[in-house]
Every structure is written in structure tokens, then in C-alpha cells.
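Q: I have 118 residues here and want to know how they pack in 3D. Can you give me a structure?
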Amino acid sequence: MEPAKKIQSSEQWTRLCRIEDVREGAPLNVEVEGLNPLAVYEVNSKFFVTDNLCTHGNALLSDGYQDGGTIECALHGGAFDIRTGAPTTLPCQIPLKIYEVRVDDGWIAIDAETGTEM
């Protein structure tokens, strides 16, 4: 597992990582000062960001299994839709917080102020 990348936030958009750091099927754990751990995903050449902690148990989703637009938690096998944060498999019932993403000059960035729970 790659170490988390610690990046300072600037202005409204917070840069998390370079696009080449993320591969489809291999979520990336990112830590930003002042935010919960984040998971960055690639799905069909688009990027998505969610909180990285499973809402059912204290496990990093980036340690789980990504199958297309679904991330499965390694701890209990519950799963979420990466694009919406919605739980898709029990025992997960509480949605993940998701973030608006934009790609800027090769960087994946989020609007940390507008993270939402579906």
C-alpha cells in the first residue's frame, strides 16, 4: 500500500494527487490536514473522491476491492457506490461522504467545503 500523501489546502479547491497516481481498480488513500482520510478512485477514466473510512467499521476503503463503480470494504464485505456514496451491500447502511472533483493542470482536486452525504 502506498503511503498517504499529505497536501496542504489552498483557496476553495484542495489538490489531492496527480492523475497518474490513481489507477482504475486501485483506490488511493490521501490525507489532507483538517479532513478525514480520503479515497481517490478512477472509474471509466473519471475521478471520484469519498471519505476513506467505512461507515460500518473502522477500516480504510482503499484497502478494499474496487470493481468498477463499487468499492467493497475489506473488513466486513459491505460495499458502496463510488459515484454517489450510497451503500449497496450490507452490513453498510450509512452513505459515504462524497466530494465534487475537478482536474486542474494534471491534479485531482476537491471542493472540501461542499462534501456531501447522499
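Q: Anything worth noting?
A: Confidence is low (pLDDT under 50) at residues 1-10. The CA atoms of residues 29 and 39 lie 5 Å apart.
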